[in-house]
Amino acid sequence: MVFKVSFHVFVLQVYVQANKEAEHSEDMKHAAKDFFRQLEQHESQAMSLWQQFREITVKEYQHIYKRLGIHFDVYSGESFYQVQTQEVVRELQSQCLLKISPKGTGVVDLSPNEDMSNICTLLRSDGTTLYITRDIAAAISRKEKYCFDEMIYV
């Protein structure tokens, strides 16, 4: 079990360290953006690497959940819904809800006075999505699939 704890600690440390380095390195920021773009374009090498990490991560989560007496029938995080994000973007555009900010990002105005004082960014200036974009696609897909009356989003 030491490996299980160590694995999670290791992954978290790598994530934290990479983000710290990216704050001070344009090369690191560029490499991360480029890799994410490759994922969104389903380039085989990036997808293969992502799939390997996802499988390891899900297995490790299953071990933790098992110890807690929890079982899930389906493991489908936000990344599973990346393909559906373009439909979300098209729908928001068709309803004239998605606007382009001065920074070139795709945003939805959430301010009560429609003055762009409170926005939610759904697209980066390079057109790639964010967690929230994929989360919206996931919520829509899950509603259609499971027909629930209420969803609690944490």
TrEMBL record:
Domain Arginyl-tRNA synthetase catalytic core, chain residue ranges per copy: 13-154
Gene3D superfamilies: HUPs (3.40.50.620)
InterPro entries in alphabetical order: Arg-tRNA-ligase, ArgRS_core, Rossmann-like_a/b/a_fold
Taxonomic superkingdom: Eukaryota
Pfam annotation, one family: tRNA-synt_1d
Residues making up the signal peptide according to the UniProt record: 1-18
Keywords of this entry: Aminoacyl-tRNA synthetase, ATP-binding, Ligase, Nucleotide-binding, Protein biosynthesis, Signal
Function in brief: Catalyzes the attachment of arginine to tRNA(Arg) in a two-step reaction: arginine is first activated by ATP to form Arg-AMP and then transferred to the acceptor end of tRNA(Arg).
Similarity comment text for this entry: Belongs to the class-I aminoacyl-tRNA synthetase family.
Listed name of the protein: Probable arginine--tRNA ligase, mitochondrial
Annotated organism of origin: Xenotaenia resolanae
